[in-house]
Write a structure and sequence with these properties.
EC number: 3.4.-.-
Bound molecules: 2-acetamido-2-deoxy-beta-D-glucopyranose, zinc ion
Distance between the termini: 18 Å
CATH class of the largest domain: Alpha Beta
Helix content: 25-40%
CATH architecture of the largest domain: 3-Layer(aba) Sandwich
Cofactor: Zn(2+)
Enzyme class: hydrolase
Radius of gyration: 24 Å
Protein name: Peptide hydrolase
Pfam families: PA, Peptidase_M28
Structural class: alpha/beta
CATH topology of the largest domain: Aminopeptidase
């Protein structure tokens, strides 16, 4: 968990016309190009996948990466190190650069921003004492409130019955003490609310497996209490004592601040092409507070931007809509806000959404989200197979990874829009088999600098980045040319089976 010395609170974007009010839909704040470059499509060649892939070069991507790193460095004064986290100057510069690069394409795109509020929490200091020892695994949950008066609170740990998902699970003596709750069955946020309603001073949620528990409580309510996650090893030891009737005291301390700021999604849509049949794609413009975020998701945002720049040389049959989401790292906030703000009519115009998050992990695997039509809106599987066919055609290996809600496709699937994407891996450990398939090092994370200070210019595999950006170009060119054979949008959406199986919402666990 980040310990920030200071919050950069200004979210004043130097975007000429981004003054859309809260909740404004994306069309409400078009930005106009200052240049009078003519980009009339008449004289341009019709898009072809070969030509668009050919236009992608690693040199152009690396040049953009150097700029992103410089933007991250502008945050050093506030954060003590480079970062592009929302609310930072590094993120603000990133947004300005994306918009200005799009404006340079003349009137090829209609560019707009969508403003939305983000709740941020910064934990300045925290400690959890269980019995007579300081917990080694305690991590404050994301968006946790502070303990009372930002001071330590003392109490007995009280074991909550069942999973702590119902008010009746909380014994009377939780009042004035610290609730001790098992992970599972409902969201961390619900457990914290349960503890708060029962009068607990704080709550501790323990994992059911040995790993540390990094989660988020989600949007704050007046009932949330200061909440820690601890690993299953510490958790089970305490739970056993409590179950035997032994008493265990605790001291919980969280000094934190929860604040709301405004940030923006950036959108760009081709002026030409059938506006009722859009192929949409995006990456997230923000990174985490811990580092410069050059692979996550500098790489995906830059790939998408480079494809947008190159696409402007061509004529399209179908509309292409690009997005750069903000606040992905805070829980997919930008893409959720966007997908939820679509009217039914606007929703139906999006034939599919393609997510591009982390395209250049140093110890990469070529990963494809295993999005199937059985569990997702029809078309998700056709998109998955487009990626499969392309890697095969290049003689490259690929793996399927779970389509489980960890990135910005989530809001689209929930809104009934077919989606999918590719990635190169975060904190998963490379297997021996994957080493044979992709090279690199078994036993290490696919991105050894995931969410860390070292996610810098050295944290990019150029081969993987170029390969995947060409694949992004292929995906855009294919659907910009034609949706022949691609399923029509369904009015009735099959999203229930997806929602039931999802444990994540963005990078942090919610339950
Ligand atoms: C992909 O998902 C389907 C279910 O939709 C499942 O049957 C299949 O085993 C999955 N494949 C992999 C490799 O995970
Ligand atoms: C694909 O994986 C196999 C092992 O499963 C390996 O022998 C082969 O070299 C890999 N191909 C490429 C292009 O890396
Ligand atoms: C990128 O990955 C390829 C294949 O594993 C490897 O040969 C190459 O050295 C890597 N490049 C960098 C800069 O890490
Ligand atoms: Zn990401």
């Amino acid at each position: 968990m980040a310990v920030l010395s200071r919050l950069a609170l200004t979210a004043s974007f130097a975007l000429s016309a981004s003054a859309a009010g809260l909740g404004g839909s994306w069309q409400q704040s078009p930005l106009t190009s200052p240049s009078s470059l003519s980009s009339s499509q008449g004289s341009k060649p019709l898009i072809s996948t070969e030509a668009l892939q050919e236009a992608i070069s690693i040199d152009a991507l690396v040049e953009r990466a150097q700029k992103f790193y410089k933007f991250a460095q502008t945050s050093e004064e506030d954060y003590g190190h480079p970062t592009r986290v929302i609310g930072s100057t590094g993120h603000e510069r990133t947004l300005n650069y994306i918009v200005n690069t799009l404006l340079d394409q003349g009137d090829y795109y209609t560019i707009s921003t969508q403003e939305f509020p983000v709740t941020l929490s910064n934990v300045f200091e925290s400690q959890l004492v269980l019995g007579s020892s300081v917990s080694k695994s305690a991590v404050p949950m994301g968006l946790t409130p502070a303990t009372r008066d930002r001071e330590p609170v003392h109490g007995q740990l009280v074991l909550v019955n069942n999973d702590g998902c119902h008010d009746s699970d909380y014994p009377k003596n939780v009042k004035g003490n610290i609730a001790f709750i098992r992970r599972g069955a409902c969201a961390f946020g619900d457990k914290s609310i349960g503890a708060g309603k029962a009068g607990a001073k704080a709550a501790v949620i323990y994992n059911t497996d040995p790993e540390e528990l990094h989660g988020t409580l989600g949007e704050p309510t007046k009932y949330h209490v200061a909440t820690f996650g601890i690993d299953g090893t510490e958790g089970n030891a305490v739970a056993e004592k409590l179950a035997k009737g032994e008493s265990v005291s605790a001291i919980a301390y969280i000094d934190a601040e929860v604040k709301q700021i405004q940030t923006v999604n950036v959108l760009a849509q081709t002026d030409e092409g059938d506006p009722d049949n859009c192929v949409m794609l995006g990456g997230h413009s923000d990174g985490v507070a811990e580092g410069p975020g050059i692979n996550d998701d500098g790489s995906g945002s830059m790939s998408v931007l480079e494809v947008a720049v190159q696409l402007a040389k061509f004529k399209v049959n179908n509309c292409v809509r690009f997005a750069w989401w903000a606040a992905e790292e805070e829980g997919l906030l930008g893409s959720d806000f966007y997908a939820a703000s679509l009217s039914e009519e606007e929703n139906q115009k999006i034939r599919l959404f393609m997510d591009y998050d982390m395209m250049a992990s140093p110890n990469f695997a070529y990963q494809i989200y295993n999005a199937t039509n059985a569990y997702n809106p029809a078309g998700s599987e056709e998109l998955r197979d487009l990626y499969v066919d392309w890697y095969k055609s290049q003689g490259l290996n690929y793996t399927f990874i779970p389509f489980d809600g960890r990135s910005d496709y989530d809001g689209f699937i929930r809104a009934g829009i077919p989606a999918g994407g590719i990635a190169t891996g975060a904190e998963a450990v490379k297997t021996k088999e994957e080493e044979e398939m992709f090279g690199g090092h078994a036993g290490q994370w696919l991105d050894p600098c995931y969410h860390q200070i070292c996610d810098d210019l050295g944290n990019l595999n150029h081969t993987a980045w170029e390969v995947n950006t060409k694949l992004i170009a292929h995906s855009v060119a294919t659907y910009a040319l034609s949706f022949d054979g691609f399923p029509k949008r369904e009015q009735e959406t099959k999203i229930s089976s997806y929602s039931e199986t999802i444990k994540q919402h963005g990078p942090k666990l919610i339950m």
